[in-house]
Design a protein that fits this description.
Helix 1 crosses helix 5. The chain is an all-alpha fold. It has one domain: 434 Repressor (Amino-terminal Domain). It starts with 6 loop residues before the first helix and ends with a helix. The chain has five helices and no strands. Helix content is about 65%, strand content about 0%.
Length: about 80
Amino acid sequence: MAQLRDKILLKRIAIVIKELRENEGLTQEAVYNDTNIHIGRIETAKANLSVSTLSAICKYFKISLSDFLKKAERL
């Protein structure tokens, strides 16, 4: 089965993650050190991240998955 890639959705997710990170005053390296997730490729919408990875990012930033997706939908 081919992997689907929604470029618009990935860009929206990237924007929200970058916004959350910057609001906390964190670098990509700091997030990686805390989570072992390379968010650089996610923030540039080059990575097609898994739901599990998105869930881990949401937990890290203390936002529910549903609230995260609502933010992404509003963009």
